[in-house]
């Protein structure tokens, strides 16, 4: 009984410690978003600015996803495991926020956080930012698991992941029929659904490329690069295939360009593109990762 | 059109990268035909025996061959090479035969029973009359392991074998032994290279049996 109670106390203490780390994150957030200092450090009123609430709490979800990859090894001592969590938790917070900052600088290069979220309360911007937060967190978690407590490998993989993510976010304008900048200014929700599906799909593909056994970092990076390139080849096949199987009709019978453009800005088209991207991405990971070709060696 | 071009470039890039960087491509040498042996094997005295052959792939096949390489008088190793379709098909029946020999930098490519190029060479052995009165070739003691390396088992070359070997060399035809003891249908090869003749390797795939087995395993 005493041992069970002791373990319960340890769990409660560690839960409290994780809360402390999230509290630290609150201040780290301010470093990267100095303009929100007033909002973050005082009590938040979600009803006042839903876009800001979504933007901020998406980061909290992201941090929770990343923290879930760090393990407490109580056998090496309670204090040491706390120390381990502090070190890796701090590293993950810094890497996560830095990744978000870089990716959002690429995607929202024409937009300013203060203008869009604090002044215009742009929900489209907030939802896209939410998707970034979740995807980056998931990818940071993946590289942290792959790094296996090695800071050098973590930094290499993190930089590598960031390069791939940087290229992938630019891919949206190439495969979507929606005009990103124009619709974001218009606070169009169709865009955020489509982009949300795209970014989550890209995240699933990139994470699956990183999720593999590794003994040598060079070979591992080569394999990731090959899988990423292969995914780029397979993804359009599924995207085109699904679009062919479930054709959509835009505009009226006369086919005016204006009507087609209006239809593309509807929620329905956003859902359609978002679902198309996610399903194509999931199927791509199946083709890239789940086919076992075997080797010649069982025969020889 | 632009997207098609990009997709094509991407596919070519992937194939190029996979070919250059994939670990499965590293370490397996390519053998175009029999002339390519001398590029892979640099020893001045070497004998190469085909011991296994295998192909992988669904639409585009890749052919592999496994060789036993005997160099000097006690160095034996096994190598796997990727080979051309033509060369693999040409030698499909030559398992257990020597496909390449080099003795004092003189190269021979005719498929013959392994060790044939030593038979009749007084530096390596002598002809002895057995109790049954048949004259057979025996290696000197220094080369006592050669019959094991060549996969002869208890078989030994006779004078008739030596004569027929010479005739085949003159007519440049593959030689499988006096009673066809070597090759995939040969008794000596079957006894001494059993891995290639394992029942699961030679089993014909029956779709009905395959489906019954599948349902038994999975449901």
Count of individual helical segments of chain B: 8
Range of strand content of chain B = 15-25%
Shape of chain B: globular
> What's the Cα radius of gyration of chain A?
22 Å
Number of structural units classed as domains of chain A? 2
How is this structure best described in words?
The complex is a heterodimer of chains A (300) and B (219). Chain A is built from 13 helices and no strands. The model of chain A has no long low-confidence stretch (mean pLDDT 87). Chain A has helices at residues 2-32, 37-41, 50-67, 78-107, 113-119, 123-147, 151-170, 172-175, 180-185, 189-210, 217-245, 257-264, 267-289. Chain A is mainly alpha-helical and 300 residues long. In chain A, helix 4 (78-107) runs parallel beside helix 7 (151-170), helix 6 runs antiparallel to helix 7 and helix 7 (151-170) packs antiparallel against helix 10 (189-210). Chain A is 76% helix and 0% strand. Chain A is globular, with a radius of gyration of 22 Å. Chain A folds into 2 domains: 1-151, no CATH class; 171-291, no CATH class. Chain B is of the alpha+beta class and 219 residues long. Chain B starts with a helix and ends with a helix. In chain B, the strands form 2 sheets. A 6-stranded mixed β-sheet of chain B has the order 1-4-3-2-5-6. Chain B has a two-stranded antiparallel ribbon with strand order 7-8. Chain B is globular and about 80 Å long. At the A-B interface, helix 11 of A face helix 1 and strand 2 of B.
């Amino acid at each position: 009984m005493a041992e069970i109670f002791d373990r319960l106390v340890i769990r409660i203490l560690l839960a409290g410690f994780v809360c402390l780390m999230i509290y630290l994150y609150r201040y780290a957030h301010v470093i990267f978003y100095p303009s929100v200092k007033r909002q973050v450090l005082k009590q938040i009123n979600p009803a006042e600015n839903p876009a800001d609430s979504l933007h901020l709490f998406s980061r909290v979800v992201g941090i929770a996803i990343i923290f879930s990859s760090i393990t407490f090894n109580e056998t090496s001592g309670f204090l040491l495991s706390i120390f381990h969590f502090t070190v890796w938790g701090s590293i993950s917070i810094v890497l996560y926020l830095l990744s978000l900052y870089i990716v959002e600088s690429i995607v929202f290069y024409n937009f300013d956080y203060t203008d869009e979220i604090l002044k215009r309360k742009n929900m489209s911007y907030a939802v896209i930012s939410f998707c970034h937060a979740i995807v980056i967190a998931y990818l940071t978690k993946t590289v942290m698991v792959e790094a296996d407590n090695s800071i050098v490998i973590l930094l290499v993989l993190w930089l590598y992941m960031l390069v791939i993510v940087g290229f992938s976010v630019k891919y949206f304008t190439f495969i979507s029929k929606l005009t990103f900048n124009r619709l974001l200014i218009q606070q169009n929700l169709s865009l955020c659904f489509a982009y949300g599906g795209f970014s989550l799909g890209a995240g699933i593909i990139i994470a699956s490329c990183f999720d593999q056994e590794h003994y040598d970092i060079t070979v591992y990076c080569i394999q990731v690069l090959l899988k990423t390139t292969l995914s780029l080849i397979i993804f359009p096949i599924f995207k085109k295939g699904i679009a062919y199987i479930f054709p959509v009709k835009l505009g009226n019978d006369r086919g005016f360009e204006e009507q087609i453009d209006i239809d593309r800005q509807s929620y329905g088209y956003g859902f359609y593109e978002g679902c198309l991207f996610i399903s194509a991405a999931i199927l791509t990971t199946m083709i890239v990762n789940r086919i076992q070709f075997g080797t010649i060696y069982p025969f020889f | 059109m632009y997207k098609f071009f990009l997709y094509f470039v991407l596919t070519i890039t992937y194939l190029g990268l996979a070919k250059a960087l994939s670990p499965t491509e590293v370490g397996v040498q390519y053998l175009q035909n029999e002339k390519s042996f001398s590029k892979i094997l640099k020893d001045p005295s070497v004998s190469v025996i085909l011991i296994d052959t295998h192909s992988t792939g669904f639409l585009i096949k890749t052919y592999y061959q496994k060789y036993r390489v005997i160099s000097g008088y006690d160095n034996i190793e096994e190598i796997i090479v990727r080979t051309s379709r033509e060369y693999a098909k040409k030698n499909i029946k030559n398992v257990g035969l020597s496909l390449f020999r080099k003795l004092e930098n003189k190269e021979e490519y005719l498929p013959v029973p392994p060790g044939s190029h030593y038979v009749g060479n007084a530096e390596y052995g002598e002809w002895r009359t057995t109790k049954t009165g048949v004259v057979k070739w025996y290696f000197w003691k220094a080369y006592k392991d050669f019959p094991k390396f060549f996969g002869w088992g208890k078989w030994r070359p006779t004078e008739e074998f030596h004569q027929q070997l010479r005739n085949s060399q003159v007519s440049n035809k593959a030689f499988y032994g006096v009673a066809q003891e070597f090759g995939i249908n040969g008794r000596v090869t079957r006894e001494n290279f059993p891995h290639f003749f394992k029942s699961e390797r030679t089993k014909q795939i029956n779709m009905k049996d395959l489906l019954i087995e599948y349902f038994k395993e999975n449901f």
